[in-house]
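Milestone M4 deliverable, item 7.
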Amino acid sequence: MDLLNLDMDVLRTLVTAQRLGSFNRAAERIGRSQSAVSQQIRKLEEQIGLPLFRKQGRGLAPTESGEIVLAYAQRILELNDEAVLALRGRALDGVVRFGLPGDFADAWLPNALGRFRRAHPAVRIETAVDGNRKLLDRLDRSELDLVLALGHAGRGDAEPVAVATPVWIGPAATEPLWQAGEPIPLALLDAPCLFRRIALAELDRAGLSWRVTFASSGLHGLWAAVAAGLGLTLRTAIGLPVGLCVLGPADGLPRVREPAIPICLHDGGRRLSPALARLRDIIQETLTTNLPDPVFSNAEHG
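Output delivered:
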């Protein structure tokens, strides 16, 4: 069977559009016209013999074949870029100081940091895991160079890269943690905490009584408490540990009406070094690859 050689330029267009959420913005980023991008996509669809996108609202969403191509395109480009940057990056040295909340620290971002390390072996990475507010305070004091944070999209240096949906989380056990009429037991992070505020507001809005049965200063302690059945919590399902599950109205909990929480990168308004700029790009790519499928806007190409 004759194998196809997929066009790297087209794959980069697809991945760029996935990251930016728009084929128009992707065309601007890579320096091509909208019509040229449309032709690239049509040519790839003809080459593969399958549609890669379907209409969804006013934009386009990947078909099953499109999702497969996007996943492989990401891997192909990562290897290509790692090879190039590993050669160029050996001239870079210094330190990059990156901060992120615990929600991401144990999920797939360690792989992103590994990619960066392989591309820039002479650059030392210092990583801080803490609450969003504390990380941003450290960024403002120039103790960190780049921060990934939940919320805080109103800051002048916020670069939205994805969104996270708050959900109720409990142990994946069949025994209920409370009976009808009893206060709902909650395991929460210490105040101030965005998710703590949302959880209490949602329960109060629904007229449900509650009590905080466990409070923790860190996410590991919180997950352990929930897994042990000490209480429910409200968080995102990003990096959800084994043994925990998402709960909802069927479990006697109110539907969370809080809008999706923006996930933003912050640089403190300072100019990024080439190594930091590359780290930012890798984190963006990682988030868009691992979070829910995007809908590409302004992407007519049929």
